[in-house]
Inverse folding.
């Protein structure tokens, strides 16, 4: 039976922390879907998220939730070590899955979901919501229009400054996180770079622990090259004392720059620089996006459409696993353990 506003897709969220709550709020803005269960080991957190949607029940045992006959799809928003095992349980129960980035502790773990999902005809999307930010959506439109000409290179920077006790949080434990800043925020930059330039058969760079007293990286520096020689220069950091996001895409005929993501990262803005025939100072056009972050709702809406249309999600398991392969390459080169 097709899912409609009168017969909406029934979704469970596993993991009711900051991201799980964002996912729940976003789901309330998506036509044709409803939140049926909010599941977390912390009963108070589960109850808090369940209260956001009429008819939603709080739960503490994910196995019962993913097996529930009323659940059509599952959003997994736990710490990294739990993402893939819960997703696999949901797939085996016949549920479509949206897995919060990075999707798993390692590429092989994520690739292990492909066969069981394919056998059951299930959609599995990896949650890279940055693709749905308004500045990046507009950047995609500009690139696709061809006005930049052939793309030459991309430069991305992303970082935050941590907080007191950051080195004692789960993200600093490689058994729970799979790594540090590279697998945390770095995967967003890798995903965006791949979205614009394609695959990167050449992966160079290194990760370092420069400030925080922890066993995972707090900075990573990457040089990724496509088969055509296009390069992505990426730097991610949790010693970026003022939170920042910057993505610049250079073509032979112009450049676009996306700066800020809203909130503590500053106002989101896209600037298009059109090279003139005589060169010199470019013609400049800018767009600002002061409204709230709708990326979570747009991404959830795309997931619902994946299911409704029977289409392969993008980014899906293949893209997610390739991103993690790049992370693992840098970690091995830098002496950090991988899965």
């Amino acid at each position: 039976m097709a899912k409609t506003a009168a017969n909406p897709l029934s979704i469970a969220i596993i993991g009711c922390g900051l991201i799980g709550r964002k996912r729940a709020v976003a789901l309330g803005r998506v036509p044709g879907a409803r939140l049926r269960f909010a599941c977390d080991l912390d009963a108070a957190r589960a109850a808090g998220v369940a209260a956001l949607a009429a008819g939603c029940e709080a739960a503490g045992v994910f196995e019962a939730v993913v097996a529930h006959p009323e659940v059509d799809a599952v959003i997994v928003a736990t710490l990294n070590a739990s993402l893939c095992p819960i997703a696999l349980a949901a797939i085996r129960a016949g549920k479509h899955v949206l897995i919060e980035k990075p999707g798993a502790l390692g590429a092989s773990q994520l690739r292990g979901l492909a066969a069981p999902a394919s056998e059951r005809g299930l959609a599995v999307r990896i949650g890279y919501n940055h693709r749905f930010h308004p500045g990046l959506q507009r950047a995609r439109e500009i690139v696709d229009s061809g006005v930049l000409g052939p793309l030459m290179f991309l430069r991305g920077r992303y970082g935050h400054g941590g907080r007191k006790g950051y080195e004692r949080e789960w993200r600093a434990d490689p058994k729970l996180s799979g790594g540090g800043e590279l697998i945390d925020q770095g995967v967003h930059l890798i995903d965006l770079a791949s979205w614009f330039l394609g695959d990167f058969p050449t992966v160079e760079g290194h990760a370092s622990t420069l400030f925080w007293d922890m066993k995972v990286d707090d900075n990573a520096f990457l040089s990724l090259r496509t088969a055509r020689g296009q390069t992505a220069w990426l730097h991610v950091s949790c010693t970026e004392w003022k939170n920042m996001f910057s993505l610049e895409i250079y073509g032979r005929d112009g450049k676009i720059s996306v700066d800020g993501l809203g909130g503590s990262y500053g106002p989101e803005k896209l600037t298009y620089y059109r090279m003139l025939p005589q060169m010199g100072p470019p013609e400049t056009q800018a767009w600002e996006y002061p409204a709230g972050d709708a990326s979570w709702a747009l991404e959830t809406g795309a997931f619902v459409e994946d299911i409704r249309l029977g289409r392969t999600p993008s980014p899906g398991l293949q893209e997610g696993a390739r991103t993690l392969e790049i992370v693992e390459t840098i970690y091995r080169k830098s002496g950090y353990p991988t899965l």
Observations:
- The two ends are 41 Å apart (CA to CA).
- Residues 134-292 form a domain with the Dihydrodipicolinate Reductase; domain 2 fold (CATH 3.30.360.10).
- The chain is about 35% helix and 25% strand.
